[in-house]
Structure formats: structure tokens, C-alpha cells
Amino acid sequence: RQHMARGLPKQKPISGVKQVVVVASGKGGVGKSTTAVNLALGLMANNPSKSVGLLDADIHGPSIPKLMNLKGNPDLTESNRMVPLTNYGIPCMSMGFLVDEEAPIVWRGLMVMSALEKLLRQVDWGTLDYLVVDMPPGTGDVQLSISQNIPVAGNSLTHSITHSLAHSVIHSFTQHGAVIVSTPQDIALLDARRGAEMFRKVNVPVLGLVQNMSVFQCPNCQHQTHIFGSDGARKLADTLGVHFLGDIPLHLNIREMSDRGQPVVISSPDSPEAEAYRKLAAAV
Ligand code: ADP
């Protein structure tokens, strides 16, 4: 395999987890975590008999605890594995459950790797049909080229960490694929493209591109505005030869409900925005 040729570590699958969907973005702030949470809930809504878990691999800025309205420290099993915290039927694990909410997470590279290793290896998921992973932002080719030039295993240089994080997350699973979230804006698309290229280089199938914040509909006059552009992500998906997985509108309800820890798929299941996430889950 290509990643072995680069001297990168090959990781074992996570026990009990059948399928992993990593949600990534080249850039921060484009709605990756919001998408990951609603995608997980959408997968559950579409397949009530299946089990879905959510792993927050964003070690530096964990947002799953707030988005899923979860707080507290995980219990430990007899074999010292962490029991995920569950809300809305979704077991979740996040660095946010292990550190003080107010404390800044400023860690050196090796500590980051060992923290991630814990989140990947020491969680008792039981059996899961899907594990949705909220990736750290920034899966660009800068990190890739750094890791190509410097062996990742045992490397403590902070700037190589983002890529090696992405790498160890991705290669920890048997069946996996990446969903890339972008806004239609050129600058976000550029980073999304880099993200897609990075996944290809490490042999991770790109399941497709989601266009977030595509259209804003005025709640008063219903006029629609394409604040960040209209169909950039769709065009990029065409150019890259990957699937276009759909549009998520820029909607006040999505933002407000996210801030309250009540994602729209759960809190407003009949809304068009919830429908958009369920469609996305069906396309993945
Ligand atoms: P990222 O994980 O990419 O950093 P977040 O998911 O944290 O991004 O989203 C960034 C901000 O944008 C949050 O305040 C979130 O509530 C808001 N947001 C994300 N997607 C939408 C959307 N479709 N409509 C409205 N607000 C959104």
C-alpha cells in the first residue's frame, strides 16, 4: 500500500466498528462539526435498526460535547476502556470529556498523538454500524508533504501533527471513506480540493463533497441569496471526479439549534434543513 511505502504506520481496525465516515474540511469554520453531528443523526434516522457513534478527533477544538449537549467524564470498563457518553441515541467520545472545558488545550506533538491514540483505541464502542469521525481541520498538502519528508512515527514536530493525526485516524478502520465539507466560496474550495487530494494520496476513498451554507432564504420575504456563491462545490466535485453529496442551506435554525445542543435533525425533524441532512446521510 502507498502509505506503507512512505514509512507511515499502519494501524489496526477499531474493534466492533463496521464502517467509518470521516468528515473533513480543508478549512476551519465551514461547518464540518455541524455536518458531522447532523450526518450521524441522519444516518440513525434513515436506518433505525443500525447503531451510529460519533468520535470527535478534533483534539484542539472539540465541539461535539456542546453540539450533542453532553458533559462529564467517561466511566471506565473493567479492562480500563472508556465508555462513550450517549445523547439522542448516539454514543460519543471527545477530548472535551477528558479535559476542563475552560482550559486551553495546548499540547506538544507527542501528547497530541497519545491523546488521539486513546480516543481511537481505548473506547468501548460495543458494536457500531457507523462511526462518524469529526476530523481536525486542515488536511492540506502542506502537512502531507511534510510527512512525506519526515518519518511520522516517533516524530514530535508539531507541524507534522495535523497530517499524522489525519493519517492515524483514517487508517484505523477497515471500511472507510471521507466526506469533505466546503462552502461555495473560492477560498474554501481551494482547501477542499487539497483535502480531497490528500485523501487520494493516502488511499482513502472520497465519498464526496457537501456544499454547506449554499443558500440563505430570508425568513421575512423568502428571497434567496447565495452569500458564499452558488454552486462552487458542485463544480469542484465534477472537476475532481467525486460525488456531489448535496447542499445544506445557511439557516438560522441550524446555527441556533447547534448552539443549544439540539441538532436540527433531532429538534426540527420536519424542517427542510433536517431533510437536507437526511438526504446527505442517504447519499453517503
Ligand atoms: P467547523 O467544524 O468547520 O469549524 P462548525 O460546524 O463549528 O464549523 O460551524 C461553524 C459555525 O457555523 C457554527 O457557529 C455553526 O453553528 C455555523 N453553521 C454551520 N453550518 C451552518 C449552516 N448550514 N447554517 C447556519 N449556520 C451554520
Automatic annotation (TrEMBL):
<dbReference type="GO" id="GO:0005759">
    <property type="term" value="C:mitochondrial matrix"/>
</dbReference>
<dbReference type="GO" id="GO:0016226">
    <property type="term" value="P:iron-sulfur cluster assembly"/>
</dbReference>
<keyword id="KW-0411">Iron-sulfur</keyword>
<dbReference type="GO" id="GO:0005524">
    <property type="term" value="F:ATP binding"/>
</dbReference>
<keyword id="KW-0496">Mitochondrion</keyword>
<keyword id="KW-0408">Iron</keyword>
<comment type="similarity">
    <text>Belongs to the Mrp/NBP35 ATP-binding proteins family.</text>
</comment>
<dbReference type="GO" id="GO:0051539">
    <property type="term" value="F:4 iron, 4 sulfur cluster binding"/>
</dbReference>
<protein>
    <recommendedName>
        <fullName>Iron-sulfur cluster transfer protein NUBPL</fullName>
    </recommendedName>
</protein>
<dbReference type="GO" id="GO:0140663">
    <property type="term" value="F:ATP-dependent FeS chaperone activity"/>
</dbReference>
<keyword id="KW-0067">ATP-binding</keyword>
<keyword id="KW-0809">Transit peptide</keyword>
<keyword id="KW-0004">4Fe-4S</keyword>
<keyword id="KW-0479">Metal-binding</keyword>
<dbReference type="GO" id="GO:0032981">
    <property type="term" value="P:mitochondrial respiratory chain complex I assembly"/>
</dbReference>
<dbReference type="GO" id="GO:0046872">
    <property type="term" value="F:metal ion binding"/>
</dbReference>
<keyword id="KW-0547">Nucleotide-binding</keyword>
<comment type="function">
    <text>Iron-sulfur cluster transfer protein involved in the assembly of the mitochondrial membrane respiratory chain NADH dehydrogenase (Complex I). May deliver one or more Fe-S clusters to complex I subunits.</text>
</comment>
